[in-house]
Amino acid sequence: MNSYILRFFSYHQPRRVRVIENLLVNRRTVANLFWGQQYGLLQWLGANRSLTRREYDTTIDELVAQGLLVVDDQQQARLTVAGVQRQEEDRDHQYQPHFLDWYWLANTNQLGQRLLLGMQVVSELAYHNVRYAPVTVGYGHLLAVKQWFARANRDQLAATVYRDLTQLTTGLAGADPRLATVLTDGLVGHDLPAWTNAQLGKQLGMAPADMLVLSHDLLLGVAAYCQHVPGPLHDLLAPLLNEGPLSKSAVQTLNLYQHGHSLTQIAAQRHLKLSTVREHLLEVAILCPAQLDWDQLLPARKRAALVKRYPDPDVTTWHFQSQADDDGAAFFDYRLFQIYQGREAHE
Amino acid sequence: MNKDEQLHRLLRERFGYQHFRDGQQETIESLLAGHDTLTVLPTGAGKSLLYQLPAYLLPHGVVIVSPLISLMQDQVDRLRQRGEKRVVMLSSQLQGPARDQVLNSLGSFRFIFASPEILATPAILAALRRIQPSMLVVDEAHCVSQWGPDFRPEYLLLKRARQALGSPRLLMLTATATPRVRRDILNKLGLDRDRVHQVIRSVNRPNIFLAVDRVADQAAKNDRLCQLVTSLPAPGIIYFASRKLASQMADWLAEQTGLAVAPYHAGMAAVDRFKIQQQFMNNRLQLVCATSAFGMGVDKNDIRYVIHYHLPANLESYMQEIGRAGRDGQQSVAVLLYAPGDEGLASQLTTINLPSADLLTQVQHHQLRPSVLGDDQELFTFYLDHGYQPAQIVTAFRKRQRQLAISLQRVVDYTGLATCRRRFLLDYFGEEAADFPPPCCDVDQPQWAGELTMKSAPHPVVCQQGDWHLRLRQLFNQGNNQ
Ligand SMILES: [Zn+2]
């Protein structure tokens, strides 16, 4: 776990310890998304949803004790020189993910469970067996797979799933042969036990921290394939795929906004607090900036006023200067401008 | 067709057995006659049949309460494996629309498994009450009698839950219960001892040889462990007191002995536990390094040995855990490893930091947050929430702590015996103990290692790996599996 967590910190940029944890477990507040983007770590959103607070804190403590990381009184951490060295050593043999750009496409924990059960059901079908213990997944998956199975053409199912998976695995093997091994050896089949990720990691000579990255990456690859290629895998997993990086509620707000409704109108119409509507737009600004008309949202004269107050090109050093009788609009403009300028700095 | 014929026919046709095992028919007939029944049968004696068979003769569904999710999952899996589809498990993991769907169709299930805490949920109880269950089964009923940190306090609510369900007939099942515990179970569930039919069979498992290895220290213990697992025929289980050690020792043993070893503990993902169990069942693993989470329901008949690396908390757990060996009736071995000081670790694991009555009172009156109660806050708040008074809680926990110390001392006594270990165990469980023919235990037979005749291990199944094309063909039965 230590080298897993270490890869998210930097020598030059102090990074908020809690933000990194929140990104990994997919806590999507605007602040987390904003800082995640500033750290260049947005694509790790939801990369380790089963990470526990205790596990994470213990790891941070260990890294500090080993002299690899220092944490200041603002709960921001940065690498020490030794930390940088370790990070570089690790990088040489670390697994490099291929599919992280699809970070928003699916909850890989859920996707993995449904895939496992779905493939087991088809494998048992291929051997004409109806008496078996289904792999231990949530009841929702049991129902979903049952429905998928009921709609499928059973005479053909084993053959079409086989072809579909072969195509998928060929693609994965092209990116990294280990992905093909971990996917197929991890599937439970008729009279065919599967290997756990821990076992596969050992066989492939990979550190547990690396296996965490690989298995998440693998499932994002599976999700990306299913999104593009019609077939039984698509039918099985499509209900778990997101349409875009934005939350459903933010999409609704965005639609209204694009149709010319003001923020107050949207709040009234959707029975939301104005602050929530603002957060939706900030989420859009961070995740899908091209969807917004920036000149309308943050007109040039506003930008000119803001740049006087916040002249530092490094937006991470800014501090919000609050004004009297502020209803949150000032902070909204501030954060929006920070996102705007931060993006300029990134590009 | 008379009753006896009907039962045997069902036994053959649905369960595939020709004969009832000792204690089964008596229990089933008692239940069908409508009696509350307490049955104590040794592990491996087929306890699940006791409720599964009557379930096909009773008009409504059967509710089974089990202390551990993993244990319930095992039962659910095995019923499904037998082709029974009308099975459902109610636990806190069941959420959202899936939960609503289940609750609305509860009447269509024959077997409804429920965790004790879910039975404390009014909505669940109401849904269950509507289907008028024909029977309530309390599995691992000895948990009812344990008060304190070592088990689910929710078991104390079962009495009320049963009343809320309309007091269906009750089956209490356990593999290990001293006479005192049996009395306590009935008390806690509010039953009149004279009106409960009790079916008690000896907990003795003659085909399990009992041995203790006293070693000087940790290093000697590891040496001895290596020696044991390389000389005893697989498959086997080693129990550890901690998850971390179970994982570390699995790696170490694999390295030292070349055996196919894997860890198994409650800290692992459910899917991984499933995979390890499946590998073990299919003889791809020769050895599992486990915590007590493993094997409550492991249906593997040919486990040849169970080794305890640490002291179990009490002899009840010990009997349960070694009972997983030799279900096929063949010669098997149970070895308890002991190094001086082991009891210190064992008592640490069962010790809780008991807050003062004063502190509990302040939490009770919301003057302090429950977090001041430390790691076990949920346990204490549970009792407070259910109307127990602080002084009462402190007294009960102190008493329980003493009981735990006594129970552990009995395990330590067991390791130091100069007389027959089997007699000691049976005496503990309140059974009249006679003489036992050899092979029995290492006190009578110190040179047992070379003397026991044991079935040789099944060949470990080696699985070719790394060829994903082949793997996919095997998975989906395509081509000729070349
Ligand atoms: Zn003896």
Q: What would you say this structure looks like, in words?
A:
- Chain B: This is ATP-dependent DNA helicase RecQ.
- Chain B: Keywords: ATP-binding, DNA-binding, Helicase, Hydrolase, Nucleotide-binding.
- The complex is a heterodimer of chains A (347) and B (482).
- Chain A is 61% helix and 3% strand.
- Chain A contains 18 helices and 3 strands.
- The model of chain A has no long low-confidence stretch (mean pLDDT 92).
- Chain B folds into 3 domains: 198 residues, Rossmann fold; 173 residues, Rossmann fold; 52 residues, no CATH class.
- Chain B has 19 helices and 13 strands.
- The N and C termini of chain B lie far apart (54 Å).
- The model of chain B has no long low-confidence stretch (mean pLDDT 88).
- The interface between A and B is large, with 48 and 44 residues.
- The site of zinc ion has 8 residues of chain B, from helix 17.
State the gist of this model.
The complex is a heterodimer of chains A (347) and B (482). Helix content of chain A is 61%, strand content 3%.
**What fraction of the residues of chain A are assigned to beta strands by DSSP?**
under 5%
- What is the CA-atom radius of gyration of chain B, in angstroms? 23 Å
Shape summary of chain B = globular
Describe the sheet with the most strands of chain A.
Answer: 3 strands, antiparallel
Helical residues, percent of chain A: 55-70%
Number of domains of chain A: 3
From the spread of the alpha carbons, the general shape of chain A counts as globular
Main-sheet strand order of chain B equals 3-4-2-5-6-1-7
Strand/helix succession of chain A: HEHHHEEHHHHHHHHHHHHHH
What kind of assembly state do the chains in view correspond to? heterodimer
**Any idea what the CATH architecture of the largest domain in chain B is?**
3-Layer(aba) Sandwich
Q: Which small molecules are bound? A: zinc ion
Uncertain segments of chain A: none
Number of helices of chain A: 18
InterPro entries (chain B): DEAD/DEAH_box_helicase_dom, DNA/RNA_helicase_DEAH_CS, DNA_helicase_ATP-dep_RecQ, Helicase_ATP-bd, Helicase_C-like, P-loop_NTPase, RecQ_Zn-bd
Domain Helicase ATP-binding (chain B): 28-195
Keywords (chain B): ATP-binding, DNA-binding, Helicase, Hydrolase, Nucleotide-binding
Domain Helicase C-terminal (chain B): 224-380
